[in-house]
Amino acid sequence: MTVDECIDNCHKGNYKYAGLEARVQCFCGNSYDPVGRLLGSETCSASCPGNNSQICGGIWALSLYEIPQSTSLTPSLTPSLTSSLLLQLILIWVFLYFKYNSL
Questions:
Q1: Would you state the pLDDT for residue 52?
Q2: Mean of the pLDDT values across residues 7-28?
C-alpha cells in the first residue's frame, strides 16, 4: 500500500476522498460527517509498506486526501487533513475504546 495506490484506487471509483489507516487500509468516500476532534500529526505516523517515505495513517487515525475532480491525477497531491472526517473517526474510536474497555 502507498498513498498513490489508495488515491488511484479511489479515483477509479469516482470517489471524492481517499483515506489511509493503519499502514494497509484504504478507504474511499464522497462525504463525511463533520463531528469529532482533530488528532495531532504524531497519531498519523505509520509508514506505508509500499513506500516508507509516505505516511499511511495510524492506529484509529486516518490520513485523508481530497481527490482532484480533473480527469488526471498529478503527483503533487498534498494531504488535505480534513478535520471534520478525522473528528468523526476519533468519535468512533472513542466510542469503541470505551465500549470494549468497560467490559
A1: 92
A2: 93
Contact 87, 38 (CB under 8 A): yes
SS3 9: helix
45 three-state secondary structure = coil
Domain count of the fold of the chain:
1
Average pLDDT of the chain to the nearest whole number? 76
Handedness of CA 23, 24, 28, 34 (dihedral sign): negative
Domain that holds residue 46: 3-101
- 89: closest CA among 24, 22, 23? 22
Can you spell out the DSSP letters for 52-101?
EEEE--BTTBEEEEEPPSSSS--TT------HHHHHHHHHHHHHHHHHHH
